[in-house]
UniProtKB/TrEMBL annotation:
One of its GO terms (biological process) is pollen development. Residues 79-93 have a biased composition (Low complexity). Residues 78-98 are annotated as: Disordered. InterPro entries: Nucleotide-diphossugar_trans (IPR029044), UDP-sugar_pyrophosphorylase (IPR039741), UDPGP_fam (IPR002618). One of its GO terms (molecular function) is UDP-N-acetylgalactosamine diphosphorylase activity. This is UDP-N-acetylglucosamine diphosphorylase 2. It catalyses: N-acetyl-alpha-D-galactosamine 1-phosphate + UTP + H(+) = UDP-N-acetyl-alpha-D-galactosamine + diphosphate; N-acetyl-alpha-D-glucosamine 1-phosphate + UTP + H(+) = UDP-N-acetyl-alpha-D-glucosamine + diphosphate.
């Protein structure tokens, strides 16, 4: 995206209630963050446009945005911090487990689902631009004979798990309901809601589906300056999958989950046709391990595959993800001499499991950082 340049009008508009200059206090705030360029076209704006620009800027959390921009600029061209491969003890390969283990996890997961302890969060804020569509990704049909969309495939998986979990209850004929929280963006929210309404929620009950919008952040130039969509509007984009934490907090959805008795949250991305939504085996394993967060991983197919990989930050440090664009050739191709596999081989495919307590801790820490 490039900055927009607009030709000056032939005659200057009336000053309006803001006068000939922008509000001094707001201008000084923007100068503190190096963003006074947002007022570059003030003299060419009409009264209503000036009002729109003022409201637009006042709606921005400037301290938070500045921290994000500075962090991003610092990371550009910076070497990857010292990392280690994920310890083998941190990865459990399902195929290597005994049938008894897998059966135990499956049943434990189904039991937790039957007790209403699992909620599902879908990250569905993106448009299918790279698929040649401006519709939400979840509306996309991948060419199956059934012509089912991604949303329908995932809804039907939830319906299937609900039926299986109902068989684990002590009351014959009882029903199980998994609540599905779907994160949209300002660009996909209306279309997503209409798609579900048109398709009658694919057999799910409307009250078990909650839509919520992720936030947006300003688009910035390579030097960190706001890009203007128009002379009176800052260009904005969805704040990415990581925006789910702030969105869950601001919409009080974690409180909603707690009121429903939810203890665990399955979180995944919409553009995975093979996703096992609300996977009982994954949930059972997660509960069995007693951890706060876990992720499904897939072994990289080849060194140059464009996927981020899980790493350990320093010896004994926390696990995190290094994006493929951050990995140099040596790191990408390095071989573990013991296993014969790539040393950094466990790719992030956006399939996560969290405890509700963990999500509350993360969102509370974000809230403190923004104060």
């Amino acid at each position: 995206m490039t900055e927009m340049v607009v030709a000056a009008r032939a005659s200057a508009p009336a000053a309006g209630r803001w006068g000939a200059a922008p509000p001094q206090e707001l201008l000084e705030r923007l100068k503190d963050y190096g963003q006074e360029g947002a007022f570059a076209f003030w003299d060419e704006l009409g009264p209503e446009e000036r009002d729109h620009l003022i409201r637009d800027i006042e709606s921005l959390d400037l301290p938070r945005i500045d921290r994000i921009i500075r962090c991003s600029l610092r990371s550009q061209g910076a070497p990857v911090p010292t990392v280690e491969p994920v310890p083998e003890s941190s990865v459990s390969t399902v195929d290597d487990r005994t049938p008894e283990d897998k059966e135990r996890w499956w049943r434990r997961g189904l039991r937790a689902i039957s007790e209403g302890k699992l909620a599902v969060v879908l990250l569905a804020g993106g448009q299918g631009t790279r698929l040649g569509s401006s519709d939400p990704k979840g509306c996309f049909s991948i060419g199956l004979p059934s012509r089912k969309s991604l949303f329908q495939l995932q809804a039907e998986r939830i319906l299937c798990i609900q039926k299986l979990a109902a068989q684990c209850t002590d009351a014959p004929g009882s029903t199980v309901q998994i609540h599905w929280y779907i994160m949209t963006s300002p660009f996909t929210d209306e279309a997503t809601r209409k798609f579900f309404e048109t398709h009658r929620y694919f057999g799910l009950e409307p009250n078990q589906v909650t839509f919520f919008q992720q936030g947006t952040i300003p688009c910035v130039s390579p030097d960190g300056r706001f890009i203007m969509e128009t002379p009176y509007k800052v260009a904005k984009a969805p704040d990415g999958n990581g925006g789910v934490y702030a969105a869950l907090k601001s919409k009080r959805l974690l409180d909603d989950m707690a009121s429903k008795g939810v203890k665990y949250v399955d979180c995944y991305g919409v553009d995975n046709v093979l996703v096992r939504v609300a996977d009982p085996t994954f949930l059972g394993y997660f509960i069995d391990r007693g951890v706060s967060a876990a992720a499904k991983v897939v072994r990289k197919a080849y060194p140059q595959e464009k996927v981020g990989v899980f790493v350990q930050r320093g010896r004994g440090g926390p696990l995190s993800v290094v994006e493929y664009s951050e990995m140099d050739a040596a790191m990408t191709t390095e071989i573990n001499q013991t296993t014969g596999r790539l040393r950094y081989c466990w790719s992030n495919v956006c399939l996560h499991m969290f405890t509700l307590d963990f999500l509350n801790q993360v969102t509370n820490s974000l809230e403190k950082d923004s104060m």
